[in-house]
Amino acid sequence: MATPHSQAVSLVQAYYDIFNSGDRSAFLALLTDDVAHEINQGGVELGKGTFAAFLERMDRCYREQVCDLVVFAAEDGRRAAAEFFIEGEYLSTDAGLPAAAGQRYRLRVGAFFDIRDGRVGRVTNYYNLEEWLRQIGGGN
Question: Which CATH number fits domain 4-136: 2.60.120.1060, 3.40.50.11690, 2.80.10.50, 3.10.450.50?
Answer without folding.
Answer: 3.10.450.50
